[in-house]
Amino acid sequence: MSESTKGTLLLVDGLSMAFRAFFGLPVENFATSTGVPTNAVYGFTTMLATLLREHEPTHVAVAFDLPGGTFRTERLPSYKGTRDATPPEFEPQVPLIREVLGALRVPAVDKPNYEADDLLATYARLGHEAGMRVLVVSGDRDTIQLVNGDVTLLYPRKGVSDLVRFTPDAVREKYGVDPGQYPDLAALVGETSDNLPGVPGVGPKTAAKWIGVYGGLEGILNSADDVPGKAGESLRAHLEQVRLNRELNHLLTDLEVAVPLADLEYPGADAAAIHEVCDALQFRTLRDKLLPLATDAGEASPETAPPVVVQTAGAVAAIAAMTGTVALHVDGRGGVDADAWALGAADAADAAWGVDLADLSPEDESTLGAWLADPNIAKVLHGAKDGWHALTARGWELAGIAGDTQIAAFLVNPDQRGFELEQILQRHLGLALESGPTAGELDLGLDGGGAHHAGQRAGERAAHVRTLAGVLEPMVDERGMGALYRELEIPLITVLARMEHAGMAVDRAHLSTLADEARARADRAAEDAYDALGGERVNLGSPKQLQEVLFERLGMPKTKKIKTGYSTDASSLHDLSEKAPHPFLTALLAHRDASKLSQIIETLAQAVQPDGRIHTTFSQVVAATGRLSSKDPNLQNIPVRTAEGHRIREAFVVGEGFDTLVTADYSQIEMRIMAHLSGDAALVEAFAAGEDLHRFVGSRVFGVAPEDVSPEMRSQVKAMSYGLAYGLSSFGLARQLGLPVGAAQALMDDYFSRFGAVRDYLRSVVEQARADGYTETIFGRRRYIPDLTSTNRQRRDIAERMALNAPIQGSAADLIKRAMLGVERRLRDEGLASRQVLQVHDELVIETAAGEQDAVENILREEMHAAGDLSVPLEVNVGTGADWRTAGH
DNA sequence: GCCTGGTATCC
DNA sequence: GTGGATACCAGGCC
User: Fold this and answer.
1) 3-state class (DSSP) for residue A136
2) FRET pair for A477, CA 20 to 30 Å: which of A196, A428, A584, A765?
3) By its UniProt entry, which CDD domains does this protein fall under (predicted)?
């Protein structure tokens, strides 16, 4: 990483990766119209394009084995002798791959009598000596020996797109030996794919142990007589084999190469040649992925992140002495097997300290632990909640979270996707962070550990976080969101972390009963559906097949049009049922229902962790309006409307050591916010009076006394009221209510004649947003909506509906977040053991400890009520029970 | 094996 | 031709 200024050399083992691609993609799905198989070409090219795009190498080569033998098969004719004959569909794809390489202007290299690996080894050495960063891509484990501080191996885990990064640390973690010692280990263990048998009874663990004890294979062989045990005996009986293995698995680093390193410089692809080759191979989507690599279409490559000096010696003491605002980075992971293995800290942008948590003394442990737990030391992280979990798993408390550059970046522009550190650095600083694992969750274990020291990477990242904070936090302030950031989102991080950590207890037995029932119901409905078709077993889960059955075979009337034909969604099927009743439709709907349910239940059952609880992950940086999101599993879309939904919610129970679940939800929060923001006197009055809102509105709209509002009137105004906040049109309202458009329009007119300020508000909020470029919630959260000035009608209409909705949905999100902070503070201040476990947009769920139920109910009511000072009261409904369903009533 | 679209659930 | 999400499945990729 430090040598990146000299460039990056990408070296690919052509055949080994082509083979992986061949077996990863079904050959029958990939062929030209003339029957030429292309799955390996497709997979290999996709992989290479991704590597070129992500790593932006300055130099590239793809090495090939040539047909016929090598010096190894001369030495040992049986070498690689167990390999099955290559499938006939593979062979013809190799020249095609070379054609693609030609179009990409990537040099293909080979050498008679040698393997591709020897070429990789030689070029890796040359690149290393030239001070380059080298990436070797190979599915051959022998290449592990090439790994060092500057040479990383990308090894396919499955397919060709999921590549594991083998750095020296990663090799040590997986195999227990240094990369240079891997051939020693392989010589002892053997390599089936090369037809090299190992020492019977010696596996990687024993081999690694011996290598540790005797310092390597040579030492082992010299002391073979002293090696104890049955394994030692076995070793002595196979010395020759081991020597031979070691001889053969050594890769040559000193070949004479026909193409000098300098000629591997990558000039970018040839657009015309890409078109030609994609035409010939009938690649459609790939063309679009390859064309950006063409030089003609090229743009300046991003700047590489500046080198950061990361010190590791004495890091604990140095970090513990930091008292100002410190940027922190935790290398670790969340989830069931959460752990942290390295820590980086920076209080200057170009210098940082890194700590490998594996080699801490007990004193270091407690020094660092105390520093982390000190709430007075302000820490800024990128994705602080992840760090919190990783450190918590290691038994440390993280306090003093004062900033989160991920959240800052979100507030600055919440509509963007991708808030990983790499992406944010790129977006806001134009910096390319090298060796970043593809954006994802926490980094995987194998990606951990920098090239030289586990703390290296963490330190570098901490320094980057510090730079980022210096840029993003002022932007947050400039946009008037300083308070929202520091007083709402940042303190909320810890609340959410605790909620995730607590999780929700689940009644597994109940869940599995439900799963069985739903599965049985789905199966029965499926059989009914097949019967209705005269026994044909179409795939009921395939919209494509359903379209064929419904609209062609059964000749049913067409439903609403979608991209791929005609819709088969539930509402369309219900419509069809009325127009053209058929037992198939009934059975299909029943099957949809039951299979969806069974799938939900199954997912939940699988999500139960060993502690008997489900731990979701909340995100503050997904929903552009400021709502939280929940995933893995999503606990914010558990069914609730139906009887079956109720039974699922019964599976969420109070956990051991606790007494009850209490739920509290805001009553009609969005309508109240609309009343507040619009200042509509009639609407404010309705809420102030505490009447049934829809009855009140109905009486005004229809001009009858409240007690004379019929259920139908009530449901019509209810749909209208809710639709308003979403930008509902008269057309949409008509559809939803099953009215003629004219009637729906008349209803809207009547509505607005009584609640005119609402209409004025909705208009003004869009106008304001168009003028300012953004919308704003009651608490100053912004959402930028550039499409409001789009000349494209459809985009503009969508933007207008977003502008209409964002302040309402966003203010509701702000309110409940404020309430959550209040609830958390009260629980702590009052020394209660009860805890928040779930938020579902307008609802909070608390698990209460014995004797605390009344106190908790009061806290919920008071804090949710006091979360905002609106011109209408914030009403809260509270329920209690041993499970979520009971509590929710 | 990855990506997209359709369908489903929630507020 | 109502906003904001997440999850699963099938099918296309050629």
Assistant:
1) strand
2) A765
3) DNA_pol_A_pol_I_C, DNA_polA_I_Bacillus_like_exo, H3TH_53EXO, PIN_53EXO
User: Element (H or E) spanning A10, and its range?
Assistant: strand A8-13
Q: What is the pLDDT of residue A351?
A: 81
Cβ-contact A402, A119 below 8 angstroms: no
Cis peptide bond N-terminal to A228, omega within 30: no
C-alpha count within 13 angstroms, C-beta hemisphere, residue A663: 24
Measuring from the CA of residue A800 to each C1' atom, give the nucleotide at the shortest distance: C3
Within 7 Å of a protein beta carbon, the nucleotides of strand C are 1-14
Give the number of other CB atoms < 10 A from CB of residue A277.
23
Helix axis angle for A14-24 and A116-129, nearest 10°, is 120
Contact A39, A174 (CB under 8 A): no
- The alpha carbon of residue A448 and the mean position of all alpha carbons in its chain are separated, in whole angstroms, by 18
List all residues 6 or more positions away from A4 whose beta carbon is below 8 Å from its beta carbon: A133, A304, A307, A434
Give tens-digit pLDDT for A386-431.
Answer: 999 999 999 999 999 999 999 999 999 999 989 999 899 989 998 8
Task: Report, at the CATH architecture level, how domain A4-170+251-272 is classified.
Answer: 3-Layer(aba) Sandwich (3.40)
**A781: closest CA among A758, A756, A807?**
A807
Find out if CATH 3.30.420.10 is the number for domain A309-503.
yes
- Do A240 and A63 contact (CB within 8 A), yes or no? no
DSSP state of A70: B
Query: Exposed, middle or buried by CB within 10 Å (0-12, 13-18, 19+), for A192?
Result: exposed
Give the homologous superfamily in CATH for domain A671-805: 5' to 3' exonuclease, C-terminal subdomain (1.10.150.20)
Mean pLDDT, rounded, for A65-79: 89
The pLDDT tens digits for A629-662 are 999 999 999 999 999 999 999 999 999 999 999 9
Q: Is the CB of A26 under 7 A from strand B?
A: yes
Which sequence spans correspond to the domains of chain A? 4-170+251-272, 309-503, 506-614, 671-805
**In angstroms, how far is CA A547 from the centroid of its own chain?**
33
Q: Rounded mean pLDDT of A41-67?
A: 92
Least confident of A304-308, A478-482, A621-625, A712-716: A304-308
Q: What mean pLDDT is predicted for residues A875-889? A: 95
Instruction: Provide the CA A285 to C1' B5 distance, Å, integer.
Output: 16
- Say what the pLDDT of residue A708 is: 95
Q: Does the nearest atom of strand B lie within 7 Å of A641's Cβ?
A: yes
**CATH architecture designation of domain A506-614:** Up-down Bundle (1.20)
What is d(CA A889, CA A874) in angstroms, rounded to the nearest whole number?
19
Q: Pairing relation of β-strands A8-13 and A59-63?
A: parallel
Beta strands in A409-479 (DSSP E): 431-432
- On strand B, nucleotides with any atom < 7 Å from a protein CB are 1-2, 5-11
Q: Please enumerate in sequence order all residues whose Cβ is within 8 A of that of A64, keeping only pairs 6 or more positions apart, or say none.
A: A14, A15, A94, A98, A108, A109, A110, A116
* Closest nucleotide to A24, Cα to C1': B1
Residue nearest to nucleotide C4 (CA to C1'): A623
Confidence of residue A327 (pLDDT cuts 50, 70, 90): very high
For range A483-506, the mean pLDDT: 98
In Å, what is the separation between the CA of A139 and the C1' of B1? Answer: 16
Q: What is the pLDDT of residues A685-698, one digit of tens each?
A: 999 988 889 999 99
Crossing angle of the two packed helices A793-829 and A853-865, in degrees rounded to 10: 140
Distance CA(A255)–CA(A257), nearest Å, equals: 6
Rounded CA separation A761/A126 (Å)? 69
Query: How far is it between the farthest Cα atoms of chain A?
Result: 103
Pairing status of strand A565-566 against strand A561-562: antiparallel
Q: Do domains A4-170+251-272 and A506-614 have the same CATH topology?
A: no
